[in-house]
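Why run this: before we spend reagent on co-expression, it is cheaper to look at a predicted model of the complex and decide which construct boundaries make sense. The entries below are exactly what would go into the expression plan.
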Amino acid sequence: MIILLIYVAIFVGSFFLVRFGVERVFSKRADFTSLKTVTFGDESAVRPNRWASVISVITIFLLWGAFTGSKWAPVHAPGPFIGDTTLTYTLEAEDGTTDDATITLRVHKYGEAPELPVVEPGEGFAKNDAAIVSAGRSKVVLFDKNDEAKRKAGAKVVAIDGKPVSIGSAVNVAAGRVALTDKGAISITPQGGLQMEPIWLPPPEKVVERFVEISTEGYQGFTLWEHLGFSLFRVIAGFLLGAIVGIPLGYAMGLSNWVRGWADPIVEFMRPVPPLALIPLVIIWAGIGEAGKIILLFLAALWIMAIAARAGVSGVNITKVHAAYSLGASKFQLMRHVIVPNSLPEIFTGARVAMGVCWGTVVAAELVAAEKGAGMMIMVAARFQLTDIVLMGIILIGIIGYSIDILMRSAERYLVPWKGRS
Amino acid sequence: MSTLSIDGISMRFDLPNGGHVQALKDISLEIKTGELMSVLGPSGCGKTTLLNIVAGFLAPTEGSMTLNDHLITEPDAERGMVFQQGALFEWMNVRENVSFGPRMKGQREAEWGEHVDHLLDVVGLADFKEKSVFELSGGMQQRVALARCLANDPDVILMDEPLGALDALTREKMQGLVLKLWKETGKTIILITHSVEEALLLGERLLVLAPRPGRIHKEYRLPFADMGVGQDLREVKKHPEFGEKREEILNMIWDMEEEIMGSSEEAGA
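The model came back. C-alpha cells follow.
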C-alpha cells in the first residue's frame, strides 16, 4: 500500500517536474507534430515521452532497492531492528507472589547465526533468559525452563514491561510486539520495518551477484549460457519447423479449394488450443527430452504461421494477380513474384507473434519438466527458495524475449519496406 | 488481320438468394487493329464486366471472342491491361515493374533493357527508374502502369478507368499521353471511363452501354481523338461539335440513370 502510494506520488511529481521544469530548460523538438494543438484524441500525436520512460525504469529500481535495503539505493525504507533488546516479564507463582525477570533478545540479520547472549540469572524465583531471533521472525521463549516457579505448577506471566497481559492478548513494548501463547509461553516479534526480506525479494545487487556467480560457475550442472542457449535453440528449432510446414500449408489453403476445405477445420480447431494445454500430451508421447519440447513448439508455431500465410495470400489485391496474368506470368511465376512477396508482411507479423508464443511456451514447458533451460533453472531455484535466481531468470527471459521482438522488427523493416504502403 | 471480334456475348449468373443477374446481353463488336474505342455508361451497366471478359478473367455464359482468329479463353500477354490503381508491385522498383512482362518471358536485360528505358523516357519517368513505386504520386504510378503494359508489346490494351483516381490536372496531362502513345504505337485500345469528356476526347469510336441488362445502346464515330493528337486537348474541347456531343451523351446517360432510379423506387414500393 505504501509502495503504491509512493509510486503514484513519483508518477505525478515527476510529471510536473518534467513538464514545468526540465522541458522548459531543454529545447523541445520543433517538428510537425509539435505544432498540433489537438493532441488529446489524436493517437498519432501521442509519442512516448522519453523522460517518462527513463524515470519509470529508474523508479522501479529505486523502489526495489529502497525496500530491500540495497547498498545501491540512496534512500531506504525503515529496516528491521537489529541488535540486542530486553524486556521484563512479571511472573506470578501459584501462591500469588510475583517476581520480575528480563529476557535479552538478540535480533540478527537473516542468514546469520550469532551466539546466545550471556546473562546473569538474577535474584528471585524468576530467572533472566536469553534468546536469539532472525529479523522479521517471531520467537517463542520458554522462559520458565530456568525458573523456580513452573507453568505446569500454575505459574503465569501477568505483565510485560509493567503492562498487564493474559493468554490470547498482545502488548506493544520497546522490544516489539509481545504475546502469550496458548500455553502461556512468551512470543516476541521484534520491530520488522518496511523492508522486504531477501527470501521474498532480494536486493538488486544480490541478483547481480547471482548472475555473475551462475554465469561463471553454472547452476544444476549446466552453465547459464547453456540453460539460455538450450531454451533459445528449442524455440528457434520449433519455430523454424513450424514455419517450414505452416507457411506452405497456409499458401495451399489460400490457393486451393480442396486444401482450404481439408485443413480449415483442423487449423481453426487447433488455433484456440493454448500450446500449454498440449504439454501433458506431448510429455506422454515424446517424453521430457528435446524431441518433446521441439514438437510442442512446432505445434505452437504451426497454426500461427499457417494462418498468417493464408491471410497473406487472401490479402493479395486481385488487380495485382490479374495484372501479372495479363503480363504473361505463369502460375509459378505469379507465386514467386506476386503472391510470396505480397504475403511477406503478413508472414512477418505472424512470425513475430509465433516467436513470442514459442518463447513463452518453452519457458512454461521447462517449468513442468526439463533437465536444462531457463524455465527449469528458475523452477529448481524456486524449490530451494533461491529467490535471487528466480528473479535473475525472469529478467533474463524478459530481456531475451524483448530482444527477439526487436530483431524481428528490424528484419521486417529491412526485408519488407513496402509494408503498409500499397 | 489483328482484329478483335466479340460475338454475341451474354453473361448471367445466379445470386445466393435464388435470383439471378443478367450482367450483359448479346454484345457483338468488331474492333480493328489500331482502333481506339472508349466505352461509357451509367454505373452498373457492365462496362468492367465486359472488359474482364475480353481480358479473359471471366467466362461469358454465351458467345465467344476471337483475337487474330483464335479463341479467347484465359488471360494472355497479347491482351495487356491497365487498372485504375493498386496493380503495381510494391516490392519492385519502377524499372523492375516495367520490365515484368519481358522478364516473365525469360528475356535477359540485354533484350529488354533498351526498350524499357525508352518507354520510361516516353512516359517521363527516366529519373525515377530506381525509385520504389510507393514513393511516386498517383499520376506517376499510372504512367508506370502504362509503360509496363507497353513494355510487354500486347496486341490489344484494355484500360479500366486508368485515370479515374487522378486529380483533374494530372488527368488532362495523362489523356494527352494516352493519345500520344496510341498514335506512336498504333495499338488497339479499349478504354472504359466514367467521364463523358474523356470518352469523347479519347474515343475514335465511342460505345454507350445501357444497364439492366448491359447492352450496346449507341455507337459513335468521333473525330476528336485524331484532332487531339496534334493539338492542345483544351482546344479540342472548345470545338462546337464537342459541346453538342457532350450534351447529347450526358442527356442519354441521365435518362438511363433516371430509369434505374425509377425502377428501384417501384421495386421498393
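The CA atoms of residues 13 and 21 of chain B lie 5 Å apart. Residues 86-153 of chain B form one domain. Bring this page to Monday's planning discussion.
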